Amino acid sequence: MLVLDQQAVKTLVLGVGNLLMADEGVGVRVVERLAADYHLPDDVQVLDGGTLGMDLLYYLEGIENLLLIDAVQAGKEPGALLKLEDNDVPSFLSMKISPHQIGIPDMLFAARLKNMYPSHVVLWGVQPALIEVSLELSDVVAPKVDTLVDKVVEQLEQWGHTIEAKSNHSSAN
Amino acid sequence: MRAVENALGIEIPNNARILRNLIEGIQYVQDHVIHFYHLHALDWVDIVSALDADPEATSKLAQSISDWPKSSADYFKTVKDTLAAYVNSGQLGPFANAYWGHPAYKLPPEANLMAVAHYLEALDWQRDIIRAHAVLGSKNPHLQTYLVGGMASPIDPTSQAAINADTIARLAGLFKKAKAFVDQVYLPDVLAVAPFYLEWGAIGGGLGNFLSYGDFPNADGENWLPSGYILGKDLSKVYPVDHEEIKEYVTHSWYEYDDETEGKHPWEGETRPKYTGPKPPYNFLLTDKKYTWMKAPRLAGHAMEVGPLARMLVAYASGHERVQAVVNSVLDTLGVGPEALFSTLGRTAARCIETVLVAEKLSEWTDELVASIASGDLKIHAGADAWNPENWPSEAKGWGHTEAPRGALGHWIHIKDKKIENYQAVVPSTWNSSPRDAKGTPGAYEAALIGTPIADPDMPLEVLRTIHSFDPCMACGVHLLDVEGQKITDVRLECANGFVSPLLKFRANGSKTNQDNDSNDSGSGSCSC
Q1: B15 within domain boundaries
Q2: CATH no. for residue B22?
Q3: Beta-carbon separation of B93 and A1 below 8 A
Q4: With contacts defined as CB-CB under 8 Å, which chain B residues touch A94?
Q5: Is the dihedral of CA B416, B419, B421, B423 positive or negative?
Q6: Helices A103-113 & B109-129 angle (0-180, nearest 10)
Q7: Potential cystine with B434: which of A144, B102, B168, B296 (Cβ 3.0-4.6 Å)?
Q8: What is the complex's ipTM, to 2 decimals?
Q9: Any chain B CB within 8 A of the CB of A75?
Q10: How many domains does chain B have?
Q11: If you average pLDDT over residues B410-424, what whole number do you get?
Q12: Which residues, including other chains, have CB under 8 Å from residue B126's CB and lie 6 or more apart?
């Protein structure tokens, strides 16, 4: 939806990545699971950012907290989880990179210059095991989706949101 | 969609034709502006130098080139202060490793500051005008509302849920705003920046072969931007396009054919991936063997450049009066001849010229839509009968073509026994980033990079300029890597959707790259790459 009516959105949960490229799509898988398993309050917006970059800029308008979820090349063991906060996020992105991250740093840069930069930025990432044409996550990364969803929920609660699991909540695929 | 319409002989209604032109036209205007300001401008504009600008002098400069109202000294001072706060915070982040201060940056600080201001304005502007897509029942990016046989957005002057008089009034307002920015900001900026970089009118020319399928059909069935191709920079002759002369080679691509010395027409096309490259991460690819996921398309045996420059040149050489008028006026303003078009600067200028022309057409197409509705014609679809497989022949082949903003896009379909027997797409970046073919002929990027002067091999800004001037597919980061002990031509590029230029060997150097991921093995593009 391009026409944005950001009604008092305080926190944006943004999963980015390319679903066609195996573990590259883990960020999107996490937000899909989050939206399926939890009731989220109106002031939390969950967004599948796909491979977009600058197009996502205006979703930052007026928000306080940005939670990014993405596959990151951190030089760690495949499946390793990683958390970065605030100023570490853009400089980290500058080193890494999957195709969409060309866009995400641009978006954060423009947000700075337009005084739209969120007060708090957190990135939860996972080291990919497999990046090639595939709709499935690798066996190493697939089980991390639940862990990442838990981390996202924890972070949202830390930011003062009340998050409730749906009654049919299940961590099975 | 056009491929299926072509295969099944479906004619779309006049309103659908106009709506498609409108949606595609807005796409051009938005895409081209974003390309210039957000993907290409920083190749020419030094953000850090803007901090030395005098806002007063910047204001004078801006007012000397345009009537655009946002041009006061106070305005530029605000932009400069915001930028200074950011740069001084040490949080340049992704931009900390950019090439600020590179000797190839030639603009004075004031022009840099003006460009930064317009970079930011373009963000708000594009956000606004792209609403036209939503107004027409579509969305952006990844356009919707197209159907085989027409469009899905109803036209009904009496319905609030359809395209009606209110919709058209909103569109007219958005188009006016679009045109104002293009005429008063984009074009003047290009004309103001170009004189500092005129030497780029002789760099990056490349193949000299240009292909346009033509697009934006008029009511009479002719395309507003004509179809044709040009060879060897010769504007005196435009050849007709026969799609049956298109063949794709895989001699240097990670696919297999039974006979790889021959190309295949897309109707007979095959996509049998067979990766034979080294296991990533790797340092070298053998460019005399297979080295990319891109196939090599050729038209009548010729490698082709596609995109705005190709469209403008084909139109110019075909005698398209409005294209000739705007192209000539830009050339006169810059004091250069048509030969300067065959260059990196020419590519960037042609994109701007095309935006000016399309922004004009938006209101003409709107008028056409109004006239059509006023005549009582509300039809937007050819009818669902054509969708019924019972009505299809047992076998049908079609080719659909369009000019996507970044160039010629063709789809080929073979329908047999009510099923898709084969489907192939040749996208713009496949033409431009093509590897060598069976005869060793390079593609457009490679040809354009040959002879590019590079001031500092550790910071090959000049290579970025030429590659970016093609508007490579958004998802394709240009990947720059150092070469051990070699200079100038020994710079290699890799793009995320698999393009690897055959320009020699490289050694990965994370500190200078935009990207550091050697394992991007995606297939050839499935978007309008």
Answers
A1: yes
A2: 1.10.645.10
A3: no
A4: 93-97
A5: positive
A6: 110
A7: B296
A8: 0.72
A9: no
A10: 1
A11: 96
A12: B30, B33, B34
